[in-house]
Amino acid sequence: MKRPKTQVLYRFLPSMFVDFHKCIVQITKWDCNVMENINKTRIVYKIHRNVNSFRRFNNAKGFPLKPNPDEYVILEPRRVEGRVRPLTFLCNNGKCNAAFSFYPNESSKVIRKFGTEFKCPKCKSGNIFQWDMIYHDTDGKLEQVDYLHYLYSKKITDRDNVKLLRHGKKPSQWRWRDTITGNEESLNKRNFETNHIMYPKPFRISSVINLHGEEFINVSEEDEEIIFSSQDAAKLKIAEYLGLLEEKNTTLKDMLKTKGSLRASLETSKTVEMMRKAGVDEKTISKMLETLRKENPSEHEKKMEILEQIENMVKPTSENYANIALEVFDYLETLSLPNKKEIREVVREAEIENKPNVHIIKKFPNVLERIGVEKAFIARDLTILSTIYGFTRKENEPDKAVLNRFHTSLENDGEDEIKTPIFAVRKKTEAIIFQFDRMKILKWLAENGVKIEFEKLKDERSLKCWFLNNIENDKIDRFFQIGNDANLQTRLVYNLLHTISHALLIQASFQCGYEKDSLGEIILPTIPAIILYYKTANDFQLGGMYTLFENFIIPWIDDAKELVKSCIYDPLCKNDKGACHACLHISEGSCQHFNKDLGRHYLIGRKKDGICGFWESSFLKKLRSDENGL
Description:
With about 625 residues, this protein is α+β, with helices and mostly antiparallel strands.
């Protein structure tokens, strides 16, 4: 039976149990294609950062120690295989309660045991059904619930003479009974690896498998691998963002290809040799070379000059330019899409077409400006690469559960797999991109205690550099709240963007008709910008985000502003974290940061700790006064 690839990625991964027709099946094998034309280096780099969050607690199993792309393989599903499991069956006759368990490799014996009618061989009247209970634990262990392990200790003497006794409401209170000896044993089972007691649970509960994945803006540029291959390449990508390449009349592609030394190439040139043979002294040759360099600088000299400029302008606290380049890359590649449309283009089209609501559409740019948005775009054909690289059981947090890698086959436990698999699918979707007014955010930061040297921020480039230099994105771990080891501006900017993202995402679902769990977010604090996109599980687009952007900006923004004003759990929510399941929380599959680092007070203010709200009327009034020179 054919399924959409996105559905397969999230519901039919190896080891997963699924309902299939009238039985339960465990996925045992993925038949895959190796994905081509993808930004593998970037994917591995980011996933490795997530894995390291678990490795800090010695809770990462099977992953390479270094982010080497050659040790990973990115796979797209072609076909999946499964086997009937779990192999414990019960009689539905309450007077019989016979139980039958088979080892995982004995699935062929099931039909021989029960026949095609699945009648109970004990009472002859009851029907046999497959039991949906499993054991699972934080180390990744997953087993069927059965009594077979009691055969080794002789606590159960005959596997064909066992009953299930339901002594209470919970399966943890039930017991296996040997009908020959009368001996009874608990269904609960000890995991000797963790020393935890495992209790029978239905395989459908969410804690059985917590998928860990990342979503990437995917572009198949042939030079993309080079961009993340060195610090210099990352610096050049940042230079492109700052407009330095355009200023030097060159391109990123040319700069990445430029190698070698100018002086060495000139000194070996025929011209220099001829000058030396003619008796021209070295001092004169040097002067002539210097004049040539100034009049017609080579690509190599341009590159060296650009790299020197970047090193002087951008100095990340971690000295790792790749962290910054990742966000810059996502932003620039989104803006390079051919089918994107800016909000002012929407206004112009409405005026040209003389739409009935053109008088409302004209207000869109001002409405967005009032919430701090400087530029807004809609992209129709944004390619998102959804990846799943591992799983945990029972818990999600790195300090509470082991992150396990996947194997494409359960039959040999992946012993023949040299590379670590990352499962992925591409999908075309629609997205809304908001880039925020950098100066407004800086003024807001100043109101909240961050020292800003405004006299040094004279143009767009200097504003961009401030965020690249001062936002410590390497301190943002998706599994943990941003700690006090990060500077104040990093905590404030990320909380601000993340809160706005959730408020808009929640209300977008009402305006465009999508479930809020079907929408996703990408936070880019060093830009600063957010990307809201449709996490479609289908291979077609419905156009809801596009309709929202072109027609319903005003009610969308109004609803978001109204959402953050109050919560049904106020004043408790407002005076605590300022975010809960009743106001700002969304599903963990949609949130980039597992509902951490959120708070309505970043938008509406909070007197008890002196936080000025970004949407607070007093702050907006002060901004207007500054703009009017009052």
